[in-house]
Every structure is written in structure tokens, then in C-alpha cells.
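Whiteboard transcription, Tuesday session. T.W. wrote the C-alpha cells on the left side:
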């Protein structure tokens, strides 16, 4: 879906992405952040898509896995199995801010690294808020079936391989619907994009996710962790 909801970025969240959690940023940094917040909201062409599938337990190479009926999707790994094994349905979702955001960050990287860092942090906050919008719609679909939802689980978390991106995007027809494609190494284009799996649970109460750092495939090379903060997915 094309984004038509006005999104307001959170300056404290943007500063946290930049490594300023728990300490004040200088007035000059805050000024740059405020300018970049306005720019990202202005240039973003955010879109998202989701689709709901029936979940079934399958087997692949002698191990249990999750298969989605009506889609060529097989999700392997213990973590996604635990995420979905009690769910009869799940939603696949994908969201992107558009290529304009990637271009703005790339231009800034050639001349102003502080601005590039701020733009990147603003984009990180914005894509999470776009995902929240999509998730809120998914929650309504679940509630219509007397279900709740669990947290967003993305390829690359835990032992769910990044290569799962390909089948997720294929099942969503994300290339045609929101212009989201993959490189040969499973990196998304545009870069400021997210895919995720959300399970329909039997209870309305939202299960508490595992620590995002604990299961994230970026944990050993994450710049946020080195700065003493997180991306907020836990």
C-alpha cells in the first residue's frame, strides 16, 4: 500500500540510533537532526504490503520447518519454528521508504558524514514506524479471527537465514507492488526496507519477544551495540 498516513519522527529515537542514548547531544547536532527529520519525511515515498497465510509444520532435510500454504515459502531454523509453531496463520509483510532516501544518504556520505549519519538514523526510525502501521492493520485482521499477534520476526534474526528474503518477497509480489527487490546476496533495494513474519496467536495478549540483540544476526558487528544502545527491536 502507498503510505498516506503522516508520520512524525521521534528526535530522541533518532539521537539514540546515533549513539546519544542517556546523554545530551550538542545543539549543533540537534539542529542537524531536526533538519534531517524534515528532509526524510519530505522525500520518503513509503509503501508496504502484507498477506496472510495458513501455517503448517513441514520437514526439510530431516528437520522441522514452517511452510506457508499457497506460497512457495519454507522457513527453516529453530527460532522461526518456535515463533510460529503455535500459530495457525501468519502474515508476511514488507515495507520500504523508497529509493529517494537511499539517494539522499549516499549524496550526504560524499560531503557531510554527520548529515549522512543523521539521515540514516532518521530513516531507521521512519521505517520502524511504517512497519508499525502495517502491523496495526495485521493486528486488526487477527482480532477479526479472535486472535492476537506476536512480534515481527525478520530474515536474519536468529537462525532464520537472510536467503529467506527471496521467497518472502516473491510470495508478496513485492517487486511489482512496492518496488522492493533483492541483490544476489539477499540485500534489499531500496536499502531502507524491512521484511517480517508476524504470527497469529490464540491469545490477544502480545507475547514478549526474545532480546533483539540475542537473536539478531548483526549482533557481532552492530554499531549501535558498540555505542551502548540498541535498535529498539527487543
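and on the right, the sequence the group agreed on:
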Amino acid at each position: 500500500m502507498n503510505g498516506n498516513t503522516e508520520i512524525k519522527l521521534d528526535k530522541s529515537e533518532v539521537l539514540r540510533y546515533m549513539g546519544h542514548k542517556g546523554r545530551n547531544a550538542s545543539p549543533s547536532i540537534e539542529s542537524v537532526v531536526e533538519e534531517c527529520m524534515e528532509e526524510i519525511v519530505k522525500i520518503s515515498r513509503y509503501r508496504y504490503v502484507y498477506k496472510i497465510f495458513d501455517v503448517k509444520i513441514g520437514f526439510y532435510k530431516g528437520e522441522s520447518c514452517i511452510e506457508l500454504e499457497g506460497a512457495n515459502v519454507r522457513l527453516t531454523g529453530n527460532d522461526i519454528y518456535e515463533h510460529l509453531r503455535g500459530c495457525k496463520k501468519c502474515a508476511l509483510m514488507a515495507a520500504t521508504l523508497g529509493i529517494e532516501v537511499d539517494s539522499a544518504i549516499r549524496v550526504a556520505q560524499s560531503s557531510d558524514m554527520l548529515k549522512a549519519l543523521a539521515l540514516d538514523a532518521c530513516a531507521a526510525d521512519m521505517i520502524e514506524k511504517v512497519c508499525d502501521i502495517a502491523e496495526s492493520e495485521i493486528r486488526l485482521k487477527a482480532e477479526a479471527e479472535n486472535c492476537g499477534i506476536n512480534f515481527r520476526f525478520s530474515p536474519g534474526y536468529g537462525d532464520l537465514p537472510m536467503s529467506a528474503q527471496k521467497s518472502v518477497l516473491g510470495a508478496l509480489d513485492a517487486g511489482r507492488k512496492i518496488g522492493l527487490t533483492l541483490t544476489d546476496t539477499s540485500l534489499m533495494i531500496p536499502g531502507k526496507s524491512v521484511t517480517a513474519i508476524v504470527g497469529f496467536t490464540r491469545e490477544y495478549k502480545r507475547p514478549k519477544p526474545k532480546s533483539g540483540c540475542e537473536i539478531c544476526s548483526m549482533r557481532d558487528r552492530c554499531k549501535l551495540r558498540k555505542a551502548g544502545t540498541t535498535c529498539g527491536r527487543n
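Someone added at the bottom: The chain has nine helices and eight strands.
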